[in-house]
Amino acid sequence: MGQWITHIDQATPAWLTDVLRETGYLDLGKVTGVQNVWSSSTISSFVARLELCYSADSRASAPDRVFLKVSNPAKDSEVVRRVHKNEIEFYRAIAEIAHDLPVVRCYDAAYDVDTGRSYVLLEDLSQTHAQTEWPLPPSRIQCEQVVDCLAEFHAFWWEDARVEEIPNENIQTDLISQTRTIASGFLDFLGDRLSEERRRLYEDVSAALGRLWVHHRKERLVGRRGVTLAHGDTHVWQFLYPHDPARDRVYMIDWQLWHIGVGADDLAYLMALHW
């Protein structure tokens, strides 16, 4: 694990050399230069694509392009810390096992319990893959590829004894609370434009979320029958689509809400948002 960084600019040649050496991706030579070719920010993180230069004694297998995601200290909260920690746990514990699955290669991932800071250093696939342009949905072929991608991932972990139950109850509790807040605002916004019948339906579902979302699955989860690893946030911009589908596969990204659960939830989430 390299030193903790709080911004993309702190990803210096020395820091990257230390990280890649410690994780076994740079056994000879060192990083001599870093160029930030693209950077942006998300709700809680800084992200960037970096091009790396190496000393002459480095191996050709060393990654020349990486994607760096660093938590934003200004957005720190208990909820944000939990989702960052969840993503780090995925890359450190799961991605190493599922190296043949549609998961982007992770060079390093670390989380500091005391400060809540985290970073993820991934393979940059921007030369072979892209996301669809917001807010346009993917094509039919791309949608079919996404479904195949989910099926492959879910099938690999289906009732797999290697995966232990993970403590995701707090994350789901947060999601239930946020969903109720959004639903309430939605109902207030529509006012009398929404029929009483539909309003009661929204209110009934909102009130029952805890039972439907958690308790209904308790027996199935405890008994480990028909469960797998679920992504938890499968909208269509959580996938990287290949420029050449005949050569490359779709990849899944952003594992902040992964959990042991019902695989069909990922498919339902995808369908409800876009189809």
Q: What would you note in describing this structure?
A:
The chain is an alpha+beta fold. 37% of the residues lie in helices and 20% in strands. The chain has eight helices and ten strands. Strands 1-2-3-5-4 form a five-stranded antiparallel β-sheet. Strand 1 (31-41) and strand 2 (45-54) form a beta hairpin. Helix 4 packs antiparallel against helix 5. The protein is globular. The chain starts with 12 loop residues before the first helix and ends with a helix. The mean pLDDT is 89.
Brief characterization of the structure:
This protein is α+β, with helices and mostly antiparallel strands and 275 residues long. It contains 8 helices and 10 strands. Helix 4 (169-190) runs antiparallel to helix 5.
